[in-house]
Amino acid sequence: MKDLILETKNLCKTFKEQKVVQDISLSVRRNSIYGLLGPNGAGKSTTLKMITGMLRPSSGEILFENKPWSRKSLSNMGALIESAPLYENLTARENLKVRTTVLGLPDDRIDEVLHIVDLENTGKKQAHQFSMGMKQRLGIAIALINHPKLLILDEPTNGLDPFGIQELRELIRSFPEQGITVILSSHILSEVEQIVDQIGIISGGILGYQGDIKQGQDLEQLFMEVAGKYRREGE
């Protein structure tokens, strides 16, 4: 039996009688990187927001570590969804100090996560002076502050230049060895196929494919076949 850290069973979300997500059943193995792929508007962010408690499912079930999802599950999750939640007038260290104070965590955790994301030498530089890549890394540091077992990253390389993408890719690759499972959503296939172990392809709110990445697999062809089959108008 596979050691799953997260499962969703027939997860659905409806907005004003429109089903945005339909019967999504994800299976995410512990200490792996799971790539959630799909066109813009496919339902990826909605799915991740339900997993992180930002949205309430209309129906279906979420299991975290083989137990029904509850608010307590969030203490073992970290997430960067949409833009990083930064205080622009604070330094990296001060941004993290806000989180450790709220969560009641020791301040030595600040140094640990700054080291992980390679931001320990930013000194008195405020967040509004950071590059996009540095802001994304600080957002990941905030998501890591509570020692999560599951890290959820929604389109984390949006707006990054090639150097920023490469740095972030190497950072994400390092997480499973640290005991952190990653769910990474993206619509950029080349970004995902270099780092993930499993993929799920969502289109039109439907999970059309789920499986391990196979060597020599033509991911672009698979993506186009699955996404094209279920795609809604306007995606």
Could you name the ranges where pLDDT drops below 50 across 5 or more consecutive residues? none
Order of helices and strands: EEEEHEEEHHHEHEHEEH
Give the mean pLDDT: 90
**How many strands, what sense, and barrel or not for the largest sheet?**
6 strands, mixed
User: What proportion strand?
Assistant: 25-35%
Shape: globular
**What is the alpha-carbon Rg in Å?**
18 Å
Number of strands: 11
In the sheet with the most strands, the strands line up as 7-8-9-4-10-11
Quaternary organisation: single chain
User: What is the number of helices?
Assistant: 7
Distance between the termini: 36 Å
User: Helical proportion?
Assistant: 25-40%
Structural class: alpha/beta
Keywords: ATP-binding, Nucleotide-binding, Transport
Protein name: Lantibiotic protection ABC transporter ATP-binding protein
InterPro entries: AAA+_ATPase (IPR003593), ABC_Gallidermin_ATP-bd (IPR022501), ABC_transporter-like_ATP-bd (IPR003439), P-loop_NTPase (IPR027417)
Domain ABC transporter: 6-229
